[in-house]
Amino acid sequence: MDVKDLRYFVAVYETKGFSNASKSLRTVQSNVSTRIRYLEDFLGTPLFERRYRVVVPTQKGEELYVHAKQLIATLDHTERAIRFPQAA
Amino acid sequence: MDVKDLRYFVAVYETKGFSNASKSLRTVQSNVSTRIRYLEDFLGTPLFERRYRVVVPTQKGEELYVHAKQLIATLDHTERAIRFPQAA
DNA sequence: TTTTTTTACGACACACGTAACAATG
DNA sequence: CATTGTTACGTGTGTCGTAAAAAAA
Known about the structure:
The structure is a homodimer. The mean pLDDT of chain A is 95. The first copy, chain A, has four helices and two strands, in the order H-H-H-E-E-H. By secondary structure, chain A is mainly alpha-helical. The A-B interface holds A 1-3, 43-45, 60, 63-64, 67-68, 70-71, 74-75, 78-79, 81-83 and B 1-3, 43-45, 60, 63-64, 67-68, 70-71, 74-75, 78-79, 81-83.
């Protein structure tokens, strides 16, 4: 499981749509669609229900979101801590 | 920062060598070398001192190890939790 | 028809293994 | 010389954006 895919996933979750997510991710819809589909295949479960004008997380989607959000935050924090050692 | 690179890093740290790490990572030395070098460039600091027959982590290397280890564990755990939902 | 997601595809970049080189003792 | 890390390089794989199709109301 790739962290980049988790970033895609989180963006879709938070913006409630593939189209919206693609903007914040600075890529195009089609790539978001492809990666989310890949992630769903990999995890063996759907993560979102595609409805008209809105995307709704499944149970597994909700579960993944909590972990993904935390994981990304930790990764980014670690990265910054090493790259920009502030203070002692 | 890519998680795969962190896995490479952890393997080098734990096996105390690029050659040893490459075996457990099922790849070749050269790739480990390249990725660690990339990681060092990206983070803007050396992570290991290359000595004869052994590799020693720098201060930053030690710091990164703690976080990397934790992060990988969390990622793997999350992945398993979604893929193989055991019990209720 | 409008809005959104999916599929197909071509071009470019990256990852991997092979092989040759460098360095250390 | 033996061992370990580095650099160079070709091939395959993946990623990205474009474009066309499908679905939903």
